Amino acid sequence: MLFRDIPGLDELKQTLVQSVQTGHVHHAQLFFGNEGSGNLALAWAYATYVNCENRGPADACGVCPACSKIGKLAHPDLHQIFPVATTKKITKDPLSENFLPDWRNFLKANPYASLTDWLNHIGTENRQPQISAEESRQIIQRLSLKPYEAEYKTLLLWLPELLNVTSANALLKILEEPPPKTLFLLVSQDPNRLLATILSRTQLVRVRAFADREIARTLTERSL
Length: 224
Fold this sequence. Notes:
The chain is of the alpha/beta class. The protein is built from nine helices and five strands.
Protein backbone atom coordinates (compact mmCIF):
# COMPACT_ATOMS: atom_id res chain seq x y z
CA MET A 1 0.00 0.00 0.00
CA LEU A 2 1.33 3.40 -1.06
CA PHE A 3 -0.03 6.86 -0.34
CA ARG A 4 -0.89 7.29 -3.99
CA ASP A 5 -3.16 4.23 -3.83
CA ILE A 6 -5.45 6.02 -1.34
CA PRO A 7 -8.05 8.51 -2.61
CA GLY A 8 -7.53 12.13 -1.57
CA LEU A 9 -6.54 12.99 2.01
CA ASP A 10 -3.63 14.95 0.52
CA GLU A 11 -3.15 17.22 3.54
CA LEU A 12 -2.83 14.27 5.92
CA LYS A 13 -0.50 12.38 3.61
CA GLN A 14 1.75 15.45 3.48
CA THR A 15 1.83 15.68 7.28
CA LEU A 16 2.78 12.01 7.59
CA VAL A 17 5.51 12.30 4.96
CA GLN A 18 6.97 15.39 6.63
CA SER A 19 7.14 13.63 9.99
CA VAL A 20 9.45 11.04 8.44
CA GLN A 21 11.51 13.52 6.44
CA THR A 22 12.12 15.71 9.49
CA GLY A 23 12.84 12.78 11.80
CA HIS A 24 9.79 13.40 14.00
CA VAL A 25 8.36 9.88 13.96
CA HIS A 26 6.38 9.38 17.16
CA HIS A 27 6.83 5.85 18.44
CA ALA A 28 3.09 5.29 19.00
CA GLN A 29 0.43 6.70 16.67
CA LEU A 30 -3.32 6.19 16.70
CA PHE A 31 -4.99 6.48 13.30
CA PHE A 32 -8.68 6.96 14.06
CA GLY A 33 -11.62 7.38 11.73
CA ASN A 34 -15.08 6.01 11.12
CA GLU A 35 -15.73 2.65 9.51
CA GLY A 36 -14.91 2.84 5.81
CA SER A 37 -12.37 5.63 6.26
CA GLY A 38 -8.80 5.34 5.09
CA ASN A 39 -7.32 4.88 8.56
CA LEU A 40 -6.05 1.32 8.04
CA ALA A 41 -4.84 2.02 4.52
CA LEU A 42 -2.99 5.14 5.70
CA ALA A 43 -1.29 3.31 8.55
CA TRP A 44 -0.20 0.60 6.10
CA ALA A 45 1.11 3.21 3.63
CA TYR A 46 2.91 5.02 6.46
CA ALA A 47 4.62 1.79 7.55
CA THR A 48 5.73 1.37 3.94
CA TYR A 49 7.09 4.91 3.69
CA VAL A 50 8.93 4.77 7.01
CA ASN A 51 10.82 1.65 5.97
CA CYS A 52 11.23 2.38 2.26
CA GLU A 53 14.85 2.12 1.14
CA ASN A 54 14.46 4.83 -1.50
CA ARG A 55 11.86 7.31 -0.24
CA GLY A 56 10.59 9.97 -2.58
CA PRO A 57 9.45 13.46 -1.57
CA ALA A 58 5.80 12.37 -1.42
CA ASP A 59 5.68 8.57 -1.36
CA ALA A 60 7.58 5.33 -1.01
CA CYS A 61 9.31 3.98 -4.10
CA GLY A 62 7.10 0.90 -4.21
CA VAL A 63 9.79 -1.33 -5.72
CA CYS A 64 12.56 -1.80 -3.13
CA PRO A 65 12.63 -5.05 -1.11
CA ALA A 66 11.05 -3.36 1.93
CA CYS A 67 8.18 -1.89 -0.10
CA SER A 68 7.60 -5.20 -1.85
CA LYS A 69 7.45 -7.19 1.38
CA ILE A 70 5.31 -4.68 3.29
CA GLY A 71 3.03 -4.44 0.27
CA LYS A 72 2.46 -8.17 0.63
CA LEU A 73 2.11 -7.81 4.42
CA ALA A 74 4.96 -10.32 4.70
CA HIS A 75 7.90 -8.28 6.00
CA PRO A 76 9.66 -9.96 8.98
CA ASP A 77 9.71 -6.63 10.86
CA LEU A 78 6.02 -5.87 10.27
CA HIS A 79 3.95 -7.45 13.03
CA GLN A 80 0.17 -7.49 12.75
CA ILE A 81 -2.56 -7.91 15.35
CA PHE A 82 -6.27 -7.86 14.64
CA PRO A 83 -9.48 -9.17 16.26
CA VAL A 84 -10.08 -12.90 15.90
CA ALA A 85 -12.44 -15.55 17.21
CA THR A 86 -12.75 -19.30 17.04
CA THR A 87 -13.84 -20.88 13.77
CA LYS A 88 -14.41 -24.39 12.48
CA LYS A 89 -10.67 -24.61 11.71
CA ILE A 90 -9.35 -22.73 14.76
CA THR A 91 -11.37 -24.11 17.65
CA LYS A 92 -9.32 -22.98 20.63
CA ASP A 93 -7.25 -19.96 21.74
CA PRO A 94 -7.22 -18.09 18.39
CA LEU A 95 -4.35 -15.72 17.68
CA SER A 96 -3.70 -13.35 14.77
CA GLU A 97 -0.84 -15.53 13.52
CA ASN A 98 -3.33 -18.36 12.92
CA PHE A 99 -5.16 -16.16 10.42
CA LEU A 100 -2.29 -14.35 8.65
CA PRO A 101 -2.84 -15.86 5.17
CA ASP A 102 -6.55 -14.98 5.37
CA TRP A 103 -5.72 -11.50 6.69
CA ARG A 104 -3.27 -10.77 3.88
CA ASN A 105 -5.74 -11.79 1.20
CA PHE A 106 -8.57 -9.90 2.89
CA LEU A 107 -6.68 -6.66 3.40
CA LYS A 108 -5.09 -6.60 -0.06
CA ALA A 109 -8.54 -7.09 -1.58
CA ASN A 110 -10.15 -4.25 0.39
CA PRO A 111 -8.25 -2.15 2.95
CA TYR A 112 -11.47 -0.23 3.68
CA ALA A 113 -13.52 -3.26 4.75
CA SER A 114 -15.33 -3.49 8.08
CA LEU A 115 -14.95 -5.75 11.09
CA THR A 116 -18.12 -7.55 10.02
CA ASP A 117 -16.58 -8.19 6.60
CA TRP A 118 -13.48 -9.64 8.27
CA LEU A 119 -15.43 -11.92 10.61
CA ASN A 120 -17.53 -13.18 7.70
CA HIS A 121 -14.35 -13.78 5.72
CA ILE A 122 -12.88 -16.11 8.35
CA GLY A 123 -16.23 -17.65 9.32
CA THR A 124 -16.56 -16.88 13.02
CA GLU A 125 -20.31 -17.57 12.97
CA ASN A 126 -21.22 -14.62 15.20
CA ARG A 127 -18.66 -15.45 17.88
CA GLN A 128 -17.36 -12.44 19.79
CA PRO A 129 -13.99 -11.21 18.44
CA GLN A 130 -11.23 -10.06 20.74
CA ILE A 131 -7.51 -9.41 21.08
CA SER A 132 -6.33 -11.66 23.89
CA ALA A 133 -3.76 -11.22 26.62
CA GLU A 134 -1.72 -14.05 25.08
CA GLU A 135 -1.63 -12.03 21.86
CA SER A 136 -0.17 -9.09 23.78
CA ARG A 137 2.42 -11.26 25.51
CA GLN A 138 3.61 -12.75 22.24
CA ILE A 139 3.93 -9.41 20.50
CA ILE A 140 5.95 -8.01 23.40
CA GLN A 141 8.40 -10.89 22.98
CA ARG A 142 8.71 -10.29 19.24
CA LEU A 143 9.20 -6.56 19.60
CA SER A 144 11.95 -7.08 22.15
CA LEU A 145 14.15 -8.54 19.38
CA LYS A 146 16.29 -6.42 17.06
CA PRO A 147 14.92 -5.66 13.58
CA TYR A 148 15.81 -8.25 10.97
CA GLU A 149 16.30 -5.86 8.09
CA ALA A 150 14.04 -2.78 8.32
CA GLU A 151 14.83 0.52 10.00
CA TYR A 152 11.82 0.11 12.30
CA LYS A 153 10.09 -2.85 13.89
CA THR A 154 6.46 -1.98 13.25
CA LEU A 155 3.31 -3.19 14.97
CA LEU A 156 0.12 -2.66 12.98
CA LEU A 157 -2.76 -3.14 15.42
CA TRP A 158 -6.25 -2.98 13.95
CA LEU A 159 -9.13 -2.10 16.31
CA PRO A 160 -7.29 -1.81 19.64
CA GLU A 161 -10.64 -1.01 21.26
CA LEU A 162 -11.19 -4.79 21.21
CA LEU A 163 -8.26 -5.36 23.56
CA ASN A 164 -9.59 -6.66 26.85
CA VAL A 165 -8.35 -4.98 30.03
CA THR A 166 -5.66 -7.59 30.64
CA SER A 167 -4.28 -7.42 27.09
CA ALA A 168 -4.41 -3.61 27.07
CA ASN A 169 -2.48 -3.41 30.33
CA ALA A 170 0.06 -5.91 29.01
CA LEU A 171 0.77 -3.61 26.05
CA LEU A 172 0.91 -0.51 28.19
CA LYS A 173 4.41 -1.10 29.56
CA ILE A 174 6.00 -1.50 26.14
CA LEU A 175 4.19 1.64 24.96
CA GLU A 176 5.70 3.47 27.94
CA GLU A 177 9.21 2.07 27.42
CA PRO A 178 9.49 0.96 23.79
CA PRO A 179 12.61 -0.73 22.45
CA PRO A 180 14.69 1.47 20.10
CA LYS A 181 13.35 1.90 16.58
CA THR A 182 9.96 0.40 17.38
CA LEU A 183 6.85 1.89 15.81
CA PHE A 184 3.30 1.25 17.05
CA LEU A 185 0.55 2.03 14.57
CA LEU A 186 -2.87 1.60 16.17
CA VAL A 187 -5.92 1.84 13.91
CA SER A 188 -9.19 2.59 15.68
CA GLN A 189 -12.80 3.40 14.89
CA ASP A 190 -13.71 4.32 18.46
CA PRO A 191 -10.77 5.62 20.52
CA ASN A 192 -13.13 6.49 23.38
CA ARG A 193 -13.22 2.77 24.19
CA LEU A 194 -9.46 2.64 24.74
CA LEU A 195 -7.84 2.90 28.15
CA ALA A 196 -6.98 6.50 28.95
CA THR A 197 -3.42 5.40 29.71
CA ILE A 198 -3.02 4.07 26.17
CA LEU A 199 -4.56 7.16 24.60
CA SER A 200 -2.20 9.40 26.55
CA ARG A 201 0.82 7.60 25.10
CA THR A 202 -0.18 7.87 21.47
CA GLN A 203 -0.04 10.66 18.93
CA LEU A 204 -3.53 11.04 17.49
CA VAL A 205 -3.93 11.01 13.71
CA ARG A 206 -7.49 11.89 12.80
CA VAL A 207 -8.57 10.47 9.45
CA ARG A 208 -11.57 12.27 8.00
CA ALA A 209 -14.12 10.66 5.71
CA PHE A 210 -13.43 10.67 1.99
CA ALA A 211 -15.01 13.58 0.12
CA ASP A 212 -17.28 12.68 -2.78
CA ARG A 213 -14.97 14.48 -5.18
CA GLU A 214 -12.00 12.41 -4.01
CA ILE A 215 -13.84 9.17 -4.63
CA ALA A 216 -15.09 10.37 -8.01
CA ARG A 217 -11.61 11.48 -9.08
CA THR A 218 -10.10 8.15 -8.10
CA LEU A 219 -12.78 6.17 -9.92
CA THR A 220 -12.23 8.31 -13.02
CA GLU A 221 -8.44 7.88 -12.90
CA ARG A 222 -8.66 4.11 -12.49
CA SER A 223 -11.09 3.76 -15.39
CA LEU A 224 -8.72 5.47 -17.81
